[in-house]
Amino acid sequence: MNKKALHLYNTASRSKELFTLPQDVPEVRMYACGPTVYHYAHIGNLRTYLFEDLLRRSLEYFGFKVRHVVNITDVGHLASDEDDGEDKMEIGAERTGKSVWEIAEFYAKKFKEDLELLNILPPTVWCKATDHIKEQIELIKELEKKGYTYRTSDGIYFDSLKFPKYADFARLDIAGLKSGARIDLGEKKFATDFALWKFSPTDKKRAMEWESPWGVGFPGWHIECSAMAMAHLGETLDIHCGGTDHIRVHHTNEIAQSECATGKQYSRFWMHGEFLRASSSEKMSKSSGEFLTLDTLIEKGFDPLAYRLFSLTSHYRNYLNFSWDAVENAQISLNSLRKKTEAFIGLEGEIKSVDARMWSSKFSACIGDDLNSSAAIGVLNLMFSDTLLPVGEKAALIREFDSVLGLNLLKAPEKAKHSAEEIEKAEALIKERNAARSAKDFAESDRLRDVLLDMGVIVKDSKDGTIWEWK
Ligand code: AMP
Ligand code: ZN
């Protein structure tokens, strides 16, 4: 066994900690905040899911079994994280002229397709906020029973000052907030209080609303994640992740409401992916509608895995600046990696020699150091130039490293697929060419060979006849 220990940066302690599981826990209980499906995911969002995939693959590489849960937020995420504004899903429905249910299905499907193109492993469980209204109501009832809630004219709120640890996670300055300039709180008692349940407006019917003990309405965004995470993973999670923007409000609120309801620690580790920053000309904001999608990259001729490699070349806790040149360079690096690994496709082998074990150990040390993927890629590149390594062992090392990197380095390139019409057209031209050859019209036969070549068809003549294949 060459693997070193796995250390992960825990946002809660602001330090790297050795990751282990409690003795009676057989698998890592991992929850990742999923997308709000009112628009396409942008490549910034996708960077966060790439980080979470790296985490999941790394845990498995270190021998842990992982139960990975990702939610789909299809209700309750308001335009502002502070419980103001319209529901983002309703904004999306107005923009597209479709129903909220239709757009939820459309964008969730598109999101899953993006993940597949990026070779992101599907989670063990996908769950939807609208499928867990009952669990959310139960959680709010529990908080109400324990005295953590209060009612205003627009909803049921969490009384954040009743949770003494509220400020700890995000290092909030509660005293400063208390003494600071008064912002308009409406009926809220304190600035950090947040909605658990919002009432439907009296003057219009919402597209999504449910009965509850407090009146018809819909759940707050924060309660969704707590309810779904606990429904699928139990009251304590091992790792909860998301983007850094979630630290201050969303995750702080998740901790407050979950720990007040259960009296237990909500998550042992908290991990956050830093933002992808767009150049000034290309903003990355889902709500403004100005952003780059994976489709835009594909349209420009990039392989989705070049974007994956681009993300892996920086540490997940650092900002990553997007530029077309950087993606171009990632594509060049991916092509070069593929050239180097091509000869190993299909080769069997095992990591046995001291030399191979040394490379494996170097790689795991990088990943074990809070998922240092760029250093791990450096080890992969250096390993290629080790002339002492037997090819089978090199193949085994590439396979092992790629189980974490997910670049499909040992996957045979897919043969282009051809439609029935293309095949029919090729066969018709071959027939025509055979007729020209029989008539000894070699100029025409050569012309048709060139036409076929342009179509990607290679023709081979032999004494047994003509055969053809796609290039
Ligand atoms: P949303 O669909 O807006 O709820 O966001 C989905 C995920 O993407 C969340 O985990 C966010 O923290 C994350 N996210 C949003 N913007 C960016 C960005 N520019 N770079 C990286 N992650 C982001
Ligand atoms: Zn969440």
Given as residue ranges, the uncertain stretches (5+ residues, pLDDT < 50) are none
Give the H and E element order: EEEHEHHEHEEHEEHEHEEHHEHHHHHHEE
Overall structural class, as computed from helix and strand content, comes to alpha/beta
Taken as a percent bin, the fraction of beta residues is 15-25%
Distance between the termini: 44 Å
Secondary structure tally: strands: 15
How many helices? The count is 15
Strand order of the largest sheet: 5-4-3-10-11
Judging from the principal axes of the Cα atoms, what is the shape? globular
How confident overall, as mean pLDDT? 92
Bound small molecules, by name, code or SMILES, are:
adenosine monophosphate, zinc ion
The helical percent reads 40-55%
Largest sheet: 5 strands, parallel
Give the key terms:
single chain; 471 residues; alpha/beta; 5-stranded parallel sheet; 43% helix; globular; binds adenosine monophosphate; binds zinc ion
Describe the protein.
With 471 residues, this protein is of the alpha/beta class. Helices cover 43% and strands 15% of the residues. The chain has 15 helices and 15 strands. The strands form 5 sheets. Strands 5-4-3-10-11 form a 5-stranded parallel beta sheet, with helices on both faces. A 4-stranded antiparallel beta sheet has the order 6-7-8-9. β14 (457-462) and β15 form a beta hairpin. The protein is globular, with a radius of gyration of 27 Å. 40% of the residues are buried. Bound molecules: adenosine monophosphate and zinc ion.
